[in-house]
Structures are given as structure tokens and as C-alpha cells.
């Protein structure tokens, strides 16, 4: 713990503000696991695609794009779609 007994109150406020301004932002969530696993064989065509993230997230906006092995788009799903759930 830091004590600022001999520093004027304005200087303490400036130090506190500087500490608040220069704290690094937290990193964006990353995918830590997927089901089925990448390059899996014998996966049912109606199997769910599940991505586990490094931290909880709220359902937002945008799209999830699924690519074929040849890097062409297979499907784009709107995040607001009922097909996308966040648990």
C-alpha cells in the first residue's frame, strides 16, 4: 500500500489519475477449445459447433463466419440469430 502523507492532495489526485489512465486494458477473450476439434473426422453434419472462450462474454452484434477447408465461406451466421447461444 502506498501512503501520501507528505504530498499535497492535488498531487495525490494527479498520481491517482495517472495510474488510472495508464493501466493496460485487459486482453480480448481468446478461443481455448473447440468441439469438434480442428480437422476432426466422422463429425455428424448436424453436430453443434462449440467454442469455449477464456472468459465469459455477453452476446453482442456481428457475424460468425464458418470457412471450408479451401478457405471459402461455408456459412455466415448473425450473432443475434437464435442459432447462436452464449452460456
Question: Can you put this structure into words, describing what you see?
Answer:
The chain is an alpha+beta fold. The chain is 15% helix and 23% strand. It has one helix and four strands, in the order αββββ. The protein has one helix at residues 9-21; strands spanning 31-35, 50-53, 63-67, 73-78. Strands 1-2 form a two-stranded antiparallel ribbon. The longest helix has 13 residues, at 9-21. It is globular and about 40 Å long.
Summarize the SSE layout with pairings.
Blueprint: H1 9-21, E1 31-35, E2 50-53, E3 63-67, E4 73-78
Antiparallel strand pairs: 1-2, 3-4
% residues in beta strands: 15-25%
Number of helices: 1
Strands, count: 4
Instruction: Spell out the helices and strands N to C.
Output: HEEEE
Query: What is the CA-atom radius of gyration, in angstroms?
Result: 23 Å
Basic shape: globular
Biggest sheet descriptor: 2 strands, antiparallel
Mean pLDDT: 76
Structural class: alpha+beta
Q: Which residue ranges are poorly predicted, with pLDDT under 50 across at least 5 consecutive positions?
A: 1-19
Q: Identify the strand order in the major beta sheet.
A: 1-2
Q: Could you estimate the helical fraction of the residues in percent?
A: 10-25%
Amino acid at each position: 500500500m502506498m501512503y501520501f502523507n507528505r504530498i499535497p492532495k492535488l498531487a495525490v489526485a494527479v498520481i491517482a489519475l495517472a495510474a488510472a489512465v495508464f493501466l493496460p486494458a485487459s486482453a480480448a477473450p481468446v478461443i481455448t477449445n473447440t468441439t469438434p476439434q480442428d480437422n476432426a473426422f466422422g463429425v455428424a453434419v448436424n453436430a453443434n459447433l462449440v467454442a469455449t472462450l477464456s472468459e465469459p462474454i455477453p452476446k453482442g452484434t456481428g457475424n460468425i463466419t464458418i470457412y471450408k477447408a479451401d478457405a471459402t465461406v461455408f456459412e455466415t451466421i448473425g450473432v443475434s440469430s437464435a442459432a447462436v447461444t452464449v452460456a
